[in-house]
Write a structure and sequence with these properties.
AAA-ATPase-like domain-containing protein; alpha/beta; 457 residues; three-stranded antiparallel sheet; five-stranded parallel sheet; disordered N terminus
Amino acid sequence: MVNKIVSACLLLLIHKQLLSYASIQVPKTFEQNDFEGAVKSEAFVDKTEFIKEFFKHKFILFTAPKRFGKTINLDMLYRFSALNVSSSGSVVPRENTDNFKLFTENNVEIYKDKTFFNLHFGRYPSIYFHFGNLWGRSFRDFIFDFKTLIGDLYSTYPFFATSLSGTKLDRYLLHFDAAKMVKSSLSELVRSGRFLTRLLSRFFNKKVFVFIDELDGVVQDIILKAGKEEHRIILFLRKFLFNLLDPNLVEKAVLSGCTSYCTMLLTNTTNMTIKHYQFYEEHVFNKLHGFTDREVKKALKQHGMKLRMTTILDWYDSYRIPGRFLTLLNPRSIYIFIVTRVLEDYWSYSLHFFKSRRLMRKRPIWKKIDDLTRGEDLYFNVINKFTVEDVTNLKEIYADMNETAVLDEHQVDLCLYFLLDYGFFTVKYVRDSQVKILVPNKEVEYDIVRVLDPEFH
């Protein structure tokens, strides 16, 4: 207990000292949700070289903690690849598009390879899905949100209303027309994504690129907001994705999400392999999500803060990649620090982060994390395959207000996995079907101490 008190006091002292350096007010919210905003920000780190690597793959899934740039990177890939089309269906010359100006006028790395840029930029019909606004309160509410998502997507292709006829026009209008969309059946909704990819591929005589952001958004909503009918919701999404990701119509697909439950939604999705690139595993895309020490040093130097590097690394470093001599920093925290020059706990400002902390207060979890903050080792078992039953199990654990409830070993593993996916921990190594985890940095440790000790502010 003494170690914990000393650690808490030191964190509080550091926190108060750092806040005293502030020259401007620390923002309570900071949303950097697209590539254009990132490029124009005061702390842009160029990741466009990874576009070349993306073109070497077919169907890929990225999972990484929240605040690690998944949405920005997906938007970057979409803006680079997407064919720009007018409301009449004619192709807009690439040089006349905002995306062309974004890549060329800011002289990003990918533009320096003129051969690759000219070969691939703005040449592919593309569809972008954002699943983050799908709620899991009930199956009825979920379907209402999903119809809205599909309707908004169809409305971006109004030229099909004049270029189609017969049954194809009827099917298109079923999702384009709000009045008709309300009456559409589940079977029609399940096939709506596939139908749109077929229309686009035939209209432009090219296979389609598909991008899906926050693939597991509704699963997180079910777990953290006591959603209902998760079996029906997840079964619907599996069927939708199975129909959507048809390799005969889709050339490439990039999906991103936060938790390990993404893979559950893609079970038997296509007859093509979807390669999963997990944040804590060694792979070619490791540096895509998160900032490296070198990238942070460069950004600080550009803003006259080179001498702050040691302090920055102490506060925001380090998420480890086992098997590589590589650590990553949370981009959101670095962005805001460079703007405000104030060290703070920025990564956890969101409702989902606030809600996820309740899992830490469960007595079996609290005890393990408390031991970890004292310097003891913390392990949990590898879960190779997540199921709908795991979603239900974790949802019920979270909803149970009894913090002293007994949890079995698998339930403890589910809780720790979820917190790891959110970024509360980092992986030291995986060995003998067990994961050894650590607290990554003082930013997260400060947040954890506040949860474990309600009297610490």
